[in-house]
Amino acid sequence: MKVIHIPEYKKNLLFFEKAGSSLMAGFFKSLLDWKGIDIVDSGPNNTTPPDGERILFVRNPMERLISVFYHLNIVMGDADGMTSAYKMDKLCEFLDTYEEKCKTSTNTHLLPQTSDYYPQPNDRIFKIEDIRDGYYRLTDGYKPSSNLNFRTQNSFFNRESYTKDFGVMEWIGIPMDNKDQMFSVALYGFIMNKLNEGHHHNESHLMLGWLRMNNRGDVLNRLKRITKSEMELFGYSSKTII
Hints:
Layout: E1 2-6, E2 11-15, H1 19-35, E3 40-41, E4 53-58, H2 61-75, H3 84-102, E5 124-127, H4 128-140, H5 159-166, H6 168-171, H7 178-195, H8 202-213, H9 217-233
Parallel strand pairs: 2-4, 4-5
Antiparallel strand pairs: 1-2, 1-3
Helix pairs in contact: 1-7, 2-3, 2-8, 4-5
């Protein structure tokens, strides 16, 4: 578990030891650096963060389980020439032994997000997908045109729409001025570009889509069963993806 402690605001931002979560941790660290707010990096595997509010950032467990499979069985193997059907057959084999392997494994790629999380009653949980979707709502509101009157052109977004759709720093209690907001949007665009470069997001969406289109309810139900406790703990519905 990575922990970013913000002494000035008495807050702890908690991220799992995963590549996508590390990018999100970098997003918040860069914003805090930009604003000149001191932080303390409590380092990995710190199960007792400093005093203050605990704010946890999670990813949909079903989507992440697909990413685990893809990383360990496709990226680390020979992906050349693999058809979608073949990948799904390999996925079924992976799910057959996944839970048993987790009992003895120390591989952070394999283990679920809850493997190093010790819930506290007042933990606040933010879903990484909600932040991503809010970013898209905010940026999709701007419609480019080749015939703009720049003397009357409105800004890309206003404070109200920013706070409503993408104001994650304000949601956790850290104020943002207009320059901070613009920087955060540009920075998140960079983060999204990095996330979309690999299997951590793109391939998991593609595989889930293939399962739906090919009526593989048997596999979808297995994914739901394996991730059921995490989905409930983090406030996800089984209909979030399916």
